[in-house]
Design brief:
CATH architecture of the largest domain: 2-Layer Sandwich
Strand content: 15-25%
Order of helices and strands: HEEEHEHHHEEHEHHEH
CATH superfamily of the largest domain: SCP2 sterol-binding domain
Structural class: alpha+beta
Radius of gyration: 17 Å
Strand order of the largest sheet: 3-2-1-4-6-5-7-8
Helix content: 25-40%
Length: 242
């Protein structure tokens, strides 16, 4: 995993999304398919916000949906904290408009999560298992290839994923795909995962589809939607381990 694989532990959610992610994208020298969807990210709680994120061939463009309150500090931080790849500074990318290519799936994904759960993706928490596989860096998730775009185009719904940690710690992610998912008032499916299963999924000793078929994922609601998302997760694992 490259030095840009994970953000420094002392960065806030705003700093990660608005400054670190664009810089990491520039440093990675990897570019997504031109049909990559834009992603809306909504983080709730203190330090939260609402952004549109779009990976183009030139840059990762991050566009806040709401003006920054006057009492909130700027997310443009010291390069010594976020790193300095050989590229334009992240501030040059924020707020830049983009034009989607023909056939691209604009606003096809909406991620909703608390700030604490977002930061837990990149930091060790004693009451949570490892949430991202150790050999996965953020660019694996941002740089979507044509195969995964084809899978994304087939998913249309809203799903909630919950990981049961220790001492009642619960990690949650709410993801909406496609027009129906973006309009949905609540998730159509909920998937609950225990800590042991999550650890095995993260380490690669257990495949997501195997976990689903073995009943190790507790599913409520639309199982067909869950199967589609599991297939998407499996494609990410195969891309990392061809």
């Amino acid at each position: 995993m490259s030095s840009w694989g994970r953000p420094p532990a002392d960065l806030s959610a705003h700093e990660i999304i608005e400054s670190w992610l664009p810089r990491a994208f520039e440093a990675a020298h990897r570019r997504p398919s031109p049909d990559s969807p834009s992603v809306r990210v909504t983080l709730s709680g203190p330090g939260g916000g609402d952004w549109d994120v779009c990976a183009t061939e030139e840059a990762l463009i991050v566009k806040p949906r709401e003006p920054r309150p006057r009492n909130r500090p700027s997310s443009h931080v010291d390069p010594d904290r976020v790193g300095s790849p050989p590229a334009l500074p992240a501030a040059d990318h924020r707020g830049r408009a983009w034009e989607p290519s023909e056939g691209s799936h604009v606003d096809r994904i909406w991620l909703r999560q608390s700030v604490a759960d977002f930061l837990a993706l990149f930091r060790e928490e004693p009451d949570l298992p490892a949430l991202l596989p150790p050999d996965t860096d953020v660019m694996d998730l941002l740089c979507v290839d044509e195969g995964r775009i084809a899978l994304l185009a087939q998913i249309d719904g809203r799903i909630s994923v919950e990981i049961q940690g220790r001492r009642r710690r619960r990690w949650a992610l709410d993801v909406a795909f496609g027009p129906s998912g973006l309009r949905a008032g609540r998730p159509r499916s909920t998937v609950r995962v225990d800590s042991r299963t999550c650890e095995e999924l993260s380490s690669g000793t257990l495949a997501a589809l195997q976990a689903l078929l073995a009943g190790r994922l507790q599913v409520e609601g639309d199982r067909a939607l869950v199967m589609q998302v599991v297939m998407l997760a499996g494609s990410v694992h195969r891309a990392r381990n061809p």
